[in-house]
Amino acid sequence: MPYLEQGMEVGRIALEHKRMYRIFTAHGELLGEVSGKLRYEAAGREDYPAVGDWVVISPRPEEKRATIHAILPRRSKFSRKAAGSGVEEQIVAANVDTVFLVNALNNDYNLRRLERYLILAWESGANPVIVLSKADLCADLAARIAEVEAVAVGVPVHAISSELGQGLDALAPYLGGGQTVALLGSSGVGKSTLINRLAGKDLQQVKEVRAGDDRGRHTTTHRELFQLSGGGLMIDTPGMRELQLWEGDEGFRDAFDDVETLAASCRFHDCQHQKEPGCAIRLAIEDGRLERSRYDSYRKLQRELAHQARKEDAALRAAEKEKWKKIHKSLRHTKPKR
Ligand SMILES: Nc1nc2c(ncn2[C@@H]2O[C@H](COP(=O)(O)OP(=O)(O)OP(=O)(O)O)[C@@H](O)[C@H]2O)c(=O)[nH]1
Ligand SMILES: [Zn+2]
C-alpha cells in the first residue's frame, strides 16, 4: 500500500474540535489536522474525518501532532443534516458495530421514540441493541420488556441497572476487543453512568438530576470515544442526541417490516388503508394482530419522512439555481467586450 511505503500509519478519530482532531495512534493520543490535499479534494462535510473514522496519518510523536491524509472507507455511519445548510451530510459517528438504544425504565420510557431510534440504527449499518436502563426504578420489568420486544422484532433487549450493577454482564459480548459501540438515547437516561460502569472508572461526568425530573441537562461535552476495560470502544457524542430522521427510507422499512409486509398483501397496491376492500392492515388491526398505536406511529413517521424528502428536494433545487446563477454571472464577466 503506497501510504505505508511513505511511512504513514493508521489512527482512529476520538474527538473533533473545530477542525482539529484527537487521534488514537500507536504513539498514544496525537492532535491532528487534515492535509491540504484532503481539504482541497473534500466536496462536503462528509469528506472530513468524524469520530470513529480510521484515518491514514503521518505522525510526529515528539510534537504530539499528526497530519491526516485520508479516511479509510466507513463500514457504518450515523449522519445528520449539517446545521444551517440545506442538505449537507454531517457524519456524527463512523464504524460503529453495535448501537445501544438507551431508554430509561422510569418516566423517560417511550415506545414511539424507540421506534425512531430503531430506524436510525438500521439506516446506519450498525446492529441495534435495546438497553433499558434504570431497571431498579421499574416495578413490572417483564411487561415492559414484552412491550419493547413487540415493537423491535428480532432486536436483543437487555434491562440493566448501572446503579445496582445489574444486567451489565449481558452487554459484554458487544464490548469485546476491537468492537465499537455507540450510545443513542436522550439526556438523563444514564449513558454516562453506564460508560463509567463499563470502564471501571469515571470517564464521563454524571450530573445529579432533580428529584421527579429525569430529563437532566446536557453534560457530555468533552470526550467522545472511550476505551473500555474489556478492550472495546464506546462512542458517546453530543451529536447522537440531535439525530433526526432524514433519508430514512431503508431504515424505515426495516423498522416497520411487520406493517410493510401486511401492506404488501392489501388487494390494491396503492391502498390507503382507509375503506378499501381487501385491506390487510385494517383486517390485522381488527383482529388484533397489529396494534393501532403502532400503525399510527408508522403513518406519522411516514409523513415525517415524506415532508423531510420534500424539504430536501426544495433545498437541492435552490442550491442548483444558485450555482447556475453564479456560473451565468461569471460568464457575463468573462465575455469579451465588443
Ligand atoms: N436509579 C437509577 N438511576 C440511574 C441509573 N443510571 C443512571 N442514573 C441516574 O440518572 C441520572 C442521569 O444519568 P447520566 O448518566 O448523567 O445520564 P446521561 O444519559 O449521560 O445524560 P446526558 O449526559 O445529559 O445525556 C443521574 O442522576 C444518574 O445517577 C440507574 O441504573 N438507576
Ligand atoms: Zn390496505
From TrEMBL:
<dbReference type="GO" id="GO:0042274">
    <property type="term" value="P:ribosomal small subunit biogenesis"/>
</dbReference>
<keyword id="KW-0694">RNA-binding</keyword>
<feature type="binding site">
    <location>
        <begin position="185"/>
        <end position="193"/>
    </location>
    <ligand>
        <name>GTP</name>
    </ligand>
</feature>
<dbReference type="GO" id="GO:0005525">
    <property type="term" value="F:GTP binding"/>
</dbReference>
<feature type="binding site">
    <location>
        <position position="273"/>
    </location>
    <ligand>
        <name>Zn(2+)</name>
    </ligand>
</feature>
<keyword id="KW-0479">Metal-binding</keyword>
<dbReference type="InterPro" id="IPR010914">
    <property type="entry name" value="RsgA_GTPase_dom"/>
</dbReference>
<keyword id="KW-0547">Nucleotide-binding</keyword>
<keyword id="KW-0378">Hydrolase</keyword>
<dbReference type="InterPro" id="IPR030378">
    <property type="entry name" value="G_CP_dom"/>
</dbReference>
<keyword id="KW-0342">GTP-binding</keyword>
<feature type="binding site">
    <location>
        <begin position="133"/>
        <end position="136"/>
    </location>
    <ligand>
        <name>GTP</name>
    </ligand>
</feature>
<dbReference type="GO" id="GO:0003924">
    <property type="term" value="F:GTPase activity"/>
</dbReference>
<feature type="binding site">
    <location>
        <position position="271"/>
    </location>
    <ligand>
        <name>Zn(2+)</name>
    </ligand>
</feature>
<dbReference type="GO" id="GO:0046872">
    <property type="term" value="F:metal ion binding"/>
</dbReference>
<dbReference type="InterPro" id="IPR004881">
    <property type="entry name" value="Ribosome_biogen_GTPase_RsgA"/>
</dbReference>
<feature type="binding site">
    <location>
        <position position="266"/>
    </location>
    <ligand>
        <name>Zn(2+)</name>
    </ligand>
</feature>
<keyword id="KW-0690">Ribosome biogenesis</keyword>
<comment type="function">
    <text>One of several proteins that assist in the late maturation steps of the functional core of the 30S ribosomal subunit. Helps release RbfA from mature subunits. May play a role in the assembly of ribosomal proteins into the subunit. Circularly permuted GTPase that catalyzes slow GTP hydrolysis, GTPase activity is stimulated by the 30S ribosomal subunit.</text>
</comment>
<dbReference type="Pfam" id="PF03193">
    <property type="entry name" value="RsgA_GTPase"/>
</dbReference>
<comment type="similarity">
    <text>Belongs to the TRAFAC class YlqF/YawG GTPase family. RsgA subfamily.</text>
</comment>
<dbReference type="GO" id="GO:0005737">
    <property type="term" value="C:cytoplasm"/>
</dbReference>
<feature type="domain" description="EngC GTPase">
    <location>
        <begin position="94"/>
        <end position="241"/>
    </location>
</feature>
<keyword id="KW-0699">rRNA-binding</keyword>
<keyword id="KW-0862">Zinc</keyword>
<comment type="subunit">
    <text>Monomer. Associates with 30S ribosomal subunit, binds 16S rRNA.</text>
</comment>
<dbReference type="InterPro" id="IPR027417">
    <property type="entry name" value="P-loop_NTPase"/>
</dbReference>
<dbReference type="GO" id="GO:0019843">
    <property type="term" value="F:rRNA binding"/>
</dbReference>
<protein>
    <recommendedName>
        <fullName>Small ribosomal subunit biogenesis GTPase RsgA</fullName>
        <ecNumber>3.6.1.-</ecNumber>
    </recommendedName>
</protein>
<feature type="domain" description="CP-type G">
    <location>
        <begin position="87"/>
        <end position="243"/>
    </location>
</feature>
<feature type="binding site">
    <location>
        <position position="279"/>
    </location>
    <ligand>
        <name>Zn(2+)</name>
    </ligand>
</feature>
<dbReference type="InterPro" id="IPR012340">
    <property type="entry name" value="NA-bd_OB-fold"/>
</dbReference>
<keyword id="KW-0963">Cytoplasm</keyword>
